[in-house]
Write a structure and sequence with these properties.
2 domains, globular
């Protein structure tokens, strides 16, 4: 599992870099113009409309499929998949028709300030981009299908064709026709589907023209999806509240929070989601098989693995917040004040990095038990706590208070989820996890001190960016060395894998 997670991390890093390149390309070709505004809104609308449903269904599909496969066999599970696909196509058609008929009022909801040419462009772009809902729905299902069948690489790769096609469309739209910009976004989503379908067929999937809305398993998926969708919407409410208060604190406060939070989720996307993606189908099958011992081992290992990678990233983000923000955003209109405000927010967001990561993994354990209610209640508690802390802390810490409120709420709700999980499955090695946690924390702090001292020394001879890079490298080497001698199991296995690779005994 760890080897697969590592491969997914590397793919995710490459995909994230391409994602940044896509954003840079849009700014290069269209700058901050009415065209870029209209284009971005046209992407946001179908994504927002369907993401709640897509996320909910794809999350709940895996445990339901595993249950059907175990009790009724593979053919019944594949028949259920076909039925789900057909139901989703029906739902997608309703969304598309609604979007085509009511495009203008929908655009005005998402962008009330749009007028004239900008509004017309946004309406035109949206009517094209909304077709992508069909491809998104299918990609959600087939990606989950592949993950169930132990193919994690193809689903991880889907971001690459999306970004490449989008960048190509941007370049062609400038030269030929502006509509290529929006058409390209639909084709980019379609290429994601093209990537995963052959993999599903190779795994044995055969599509069937069955449509039974009343099927008990379909109802079960949608029933289980409701709390997940509610949980997703709660997260969106948190973001909305944060931005509303930020707009009252300082000019550029929303941007500072957005950029800092984007870096936070960059780490989550690479580390946490890679582990969660590999873990989820495995534990879903263990729940069906009633393999509680194996489940506890995977949960414990995943918690340790995330701590192993996220805690040093947390320390690094705190001590190097300003040079990291300067490196990534410190150019053009992003002045020293913006750098200072964003760095300030990043420090406080980093405090909750581990809590957010563990919550993502723990939620999937409950989903494996087809318990979507507990994570939903947990998210609701987090939302109310975040709002209360936002009001209190923002008065004293400004933008940093909003970020700190998010971190505290995430850490607190993660602790509650750990308690709930222990009640559900019994003890899962918290003593060993705690020991590993203190070892990792100690190593991370030592790493941070040495990396910071190295940076302060190296900056006397090199540029800030080079000193930052070298300081991080020195810190990372020291951290891995300390962890190796502290005998953390996850490190031992990684080192063994590297040794085998070097000696030629392990093949990828």
């Amino acid at each position: 599992m760890k080897k697969t997670a590592l491969i997914i991390m590397l793919i995710t890093i490459f995909s994230k870099v391409l994602g940044f390149t896509r954003e840079i390309s849009l700014s290069y070709f269209y700058g901050a113009s009415n065209i870029s505004d209209a284009y971005l809104i046209s992407l946001t609308i179908p994504m927002t409309i369907f993401s709640f449903i897509g996320t909910g269904i794809s999350t709940c599909y895996i445990p339901v499929y595993s249950d059907i496969q175990e009790k009724k066999g593979l053919k019944k599970a594949d028949l259920f998949t076909s039925n789900l696909i057909n139901v989703l196509m029906l739902i997608s058609t309703l969304f598309v028709l609604f979007g085509l008929f009511f495009t203008e009022p929908i655009v005005k909801i998402f962008a009330s300030g749009f007028q004239g040419e900008t509004l017309d462009l946004a309406i035109l772009f949206t009517r094209i981009s909304i077709i992508g809902i069909y491809f998104s729905a299918l990609t959600y299902v087939f990606s989950s299908y592949l993950q169930i069948n132990k193919n994690f690489v193809l689903p991880a790769l889907i971001g690459i064709p999306f970004n490449l096609v989008s960048i190509l469309a941007m370049a062609l739209s400038v030269k030929y026709n502006i509509l290529i910009l929006s058409i390209g976004s639909v084709l980019a989503i379609a290429f994601q589907l093209v990537l995963v379908i052959p993999g599903a067929i190779k795994r044995g999937f055969r599509y069937s023209m069955t449509l039974d809305i009343k099927d008990i398993h379909i109802r079960n998926v949608f029933y289980l999806s409701i709390p997940v969708m509610f949980g997703v919407s709660i997260n969106e409410i948190n973001v909305l509240v944060d931005r509303t208060i930020a707009s009252q604190i300082a000019v550029g406060g929303i941007s500072a929070l957005t950029y800092a939070n984007r870096l936070n989720w960059f780490v989550q996307g690479i580390i946490v989601m890679s582990i969660a993606t590999v873990m989820y189908p495995t534990i879903s099958k263990m729940v069906v098989d009633k393999n509680i011992k194996g489940l506890k081992k995977v949960v414990s290992g995943s918690i340790t693995a995330i701590s192993l990678l996220v805690l040093p990233a947390t320390i690094g983000s705190i001590i190097f917040a300003e040079p990291i923000i300067t490196l990534l955003f410190g150019r053009g209109a992003f002045d020293t004040e913006a750098i200072a405000m964003t760095s300030y927010a990043l420090v406080f967001y980093s405090i909750g990095m581990l809590g957010i990561g563990l919550r993502e993994v723990l939620s999937r354990v409950f989903y494996s038990y087809q318990d979507t209610r507990t994570p939903m209640i947990n998210a609701a508690i987090g939302m109310f706590l975040n709002i209360i802390l936002n009001i209190i802390l923002s008065k004293h810490l400004g933008i940093g208070g909003l970020a700190l409120a998010t971190s505290i709420a995430a850490t607190f709700t993660t602790a509650l989820m750990l308690i709930s999980l222990k009640k559900k499955i019994g003890s899962f090695g918290m003593k060993e996890i705690t020991v590993s946690f203190f070892k990792i924390t100690t190593a991370s702090i030592i790493m941070g001190v040495v990396a910071k001292m190295s940076y302060e020394y190296l900056i006397l001879f090199f540029s800030q960016n080079i000193a930052l890079f070298l300081g991080i490298i020195i810190g990372a080497i020291l951290y891995m060395t300390i962890m190796y001698f502290m005998k953390i199991d996850d490190i031992d296995e990684v080192v063994a894998m590297v040794k085998n690779k070097i000696s030629g005994r392990q093949k990828i």
